[in-house]
Amino acid sequence: MAKKVQIAGVLSLSILLSFCSEKKEQTSDVTQYQVNNQVISLTENSNLKSRIKVAEVAEEDFTFDLVTAGLVKAIPNHYAEIASPFSGRIVKSFIKLGQKVGINQPLFEVSSPDYFEAQKDYFDSKQEYKQASLNLKRQADLLENGVGVRQEYEEAETENSIAKAAFDNATAAIKIYNVQPGSLALGQPLIVRSPIEGEILENNIVLGQYINDDADPVVKIAALNKIWIVGKVKEKDIQHLTKLNKVQIELAAYPDQPIVGTIYHVNEIVDEETRSIDVLIEADNNNRILKPGMYVNVRFIDQPEKVILVPSRAVLQGEDDSFVFVEVAPNEYTRKNVVIGGVSGNQTVILSGLEKGDKVVSEGGIYLPQL
């Protein structure tokens, strides 16, 4: 029984010593600093003094350098996908893959009943207009010689106007397919021509193939001497685009051959999911290094400017903002919210919140209370 009491006594003494030790530690922590009117003052014997380092804020030349992913694409008005405007059978091809073509150069021929009907409408309306014109001329001669009837002349004039409108519509319908009516012959196949200058990227023409008017394109053409790169820029970095000096395109396949591009257009709409905008960069591509669909790195390089740089360790993150501790007197510090403009190596750009000459806690800020 005495042994049990002795054990209980030892346990009680151990708990009491532990409690005293914890209380002493807590007292020690509390006496490391004092807070008065948002100013943190280290006590005379505070061991935090050895952990905290201070650096003076200075303005330095800084070049904004942002690297983002980009997608190569053909310029829309330098790119065309060609399908047959009529249902019919392909009877001839004039091209091969990789061939360079000019505007209005023949690509392929289609024999189509629908195109034959369009031709027939053109020639019928042309003949009717010719007859109506002759009739109007005859009625005008009769009226001029005093043997005609005014009503018949007016009817001929109306018929001529109707026939002319029908002929003009038929002519316009033929010209839509890049066909010159003067060289049109009834029954000839439709020659499909290139709407742009470029080179054949895809050629899916099969002689004898029957295609519908809603079929997929059989020829794709693009002029690739100039190309677009679509880069995505976060909304917080949009400000740098207004004073951008140049854009550099970097390819993994050609690491030693960067390409310089210029900003063609900055999209006005921010993507709600990625919080970024699309930036179109135009670049020369005479050597055909850039291929549509290729992924590249886009490096936006800003003009050098004077900015405030602080060690990145000095910047702490709160719930809704970033902040630093600024020394207001020896061993006295206060918190200041800052706006970050980017990171360069182990330094952070501060857009606002600090002034030249401020002294910030560069190390050890995590030991100070976040007021």
Could you please describe the fold and organization of this structure?
- Helices cover 23% and strands 38% of the residues.
- The chain has helices at residues 2-30, 113-144, 150-175, and strands spanning 33-36, 39-42, 53-56, 58-62, 65-73, 79-82, 88-93, 100-101, 106-111, 190-193, 198-203, 210-211, 219-222, 226-234, 244-250, 259-266, 276-284, 295-302, 305-311, 316-317, 322-329, 332-344, 347-352, 359-363.
- α2 (113-144) packs antiparallel against α3 (150-175).
Biggest beta sheet summary: 8 strands, antiparallel
Low-confidence stretches: 1-29
Order of helices and strands: HEEEEEEEEEHHEEEEEEEEEEEEEEE
Average pLDDT score: 85
Structural class: alpha+beta
Tell me the distance between the termini. 55 Å
Which term fits the overall shape? elongated
Please give the number of β-strands. 24
Q: Work out the strand percent.
A: 35-45%
Report the total helices. Answer: 3
